[in-house]
């Protein structure tokens, strides 16, 4: 997919992965009206959206089997669905969950970071940045209903949400395990974690690449609630009701006050962050580490 037009929102120039889609040239109002979500489900191949307009919420399900790894396609479809809901005033909250049994998301797609050229790495990283910025600064209430394993980029996505409910299953570990792959979480992954669980716990978790099982994840504050697996969705819904009882403008301004400085750090240095990623991921030693890790994942089966 070609890299693409930018759109200015406040001081941010946003990536428009959908710029090539029919209707992309429409004005914002017109396209929002045409794209109004309504009561019927919508979505794309990899992102299912089940709207409940009466309640003002939508359930967004990642559906990219087997493990919801964040490919360029999934990132793009994710941003498009998010934008659609953000632009429709009916919606005040999203419950984010997985349609893949046992896995919330396996994080960034290792195939996007192995054996490709620098232009591809740059395009991919820009899409990762874009999803994070949009989720982290979303005006909507985002609740993660974590119904499976949640490593690395999967964990990052859940950390952008306002609240995390995790299913109580020892296989459903969560954390930023990048060091285990021989790679380093960038500063904005780290900042998101520090803002959630504090500096000291983040330092230990990041260096050791800890994947926390549910009880420990709850104890360190990585998640807000651990419930039996069959109660994840209903718990997310009742938490959502509580968050939606707060007037939107006050909650949104407060969220922005808490998060803007963190997001601005990336906004100010997006290009250098991309260059840093491309340089790092292109190194032979890093490519070898990733190949070894992929090999171990594949061997695990055999
Ligand atoms: C300045 C530089 C900064 C660089 C920063 C880069 C940041 C990176 C952040 C990341 O997100 S890196 C990705 C880290 N992810 C992981 O470590 C998770 C790896 N996966 C797993 O641990 C397991 O797959 C799982 C999620 C626990 C699920 O286990 P399950 O037993 O259900 O499935 P598997 O048999 O392991 O996997 C099925 C299938 O999927 C492939 N796969 C798994 N994860 C990924 C992935 N992240 N990307 C691409 N492909 C993945 C796996 O290899 C299997 O493939 P196969 O062909 O069927 O063997």
UniProtKB/TrEMBL annotation:
Gene Ontology biological process terms, A to Z: fatty acid beta-oxidation
Catalyzed chemical reaction(s): a (3E)-enoyl-CoA = a 4-saturated (2E)-enoyl-CoA; (3Z)-octenoyl-CoA = (2E)-octenoyl-CoA; (3Z)-dodecenoyl-CoA = (2E)-dodecenoyl-CoA; (3Z)-decenoyl-CoA = (2E)-decenoyl-CoA
Compartmental location: Mitochondrion matrix
Gene3D superfamilies tied to this protein: 2-enoyl-CoA Hydratase, Chain A, domain 1 (3.90.226.10), 6.10.250.170
InterPro entries the UniProt entry points to: ClpP/crotonase-like_dom_sf, Enoyl-CoA_hyd/isom_CS, Enoyl-CoA_hydra/iso
Entry protein name: Enoyl-CoA delta isomerase 1, mitochondrial
Entry keywords, A to Z: Acetylation, Fatty acid metabolism, Isomerase, Lipid metabolism, Mitochondrion, Transit peptide
Record pathway: Lipid metabolism; fatty acid beta-oxidation
Native species: Desmodus rotundus
Function recorded in the entry: Key enzyme of fatty acid beta-oxidation. Able to isomerize both 3-cis (3Z) and 3-trans (3E) double bonds into the 2-trans (2E) form in a range of enoyl-CoA species, with a preference for (3Z)-enoyl-CoAs over (3E)-enoyl-CoAs. The catalytic efficiency of this enzyme is not affected by the fatty acyl chain length.
Subunit-structure text: Homotrimer.
GO molecular function: delta(3)-delta(2)-enoyl-CoA isomerase activity
